Amino acid sequence: MRFILAFSYNLITLPKNQRTVSIEVDIVPFGKIGEPDQQIFWADSGNPMNILGFAEALANAEIASIDGLEIQVISLPAFIFLKIFAWSDRGGRTDKDIEDIESVLLKYEDYERVYTELAEELDNQVVKFTDANIYLLGQDICKILQTKTLIELNKILIKLIKKFDSDDEKSLGYKLIVLQKGINSRNIKK
Question: Regarding predicted confidence, which is higher, 4 or 40?
Answer without folding.
Answer: 40
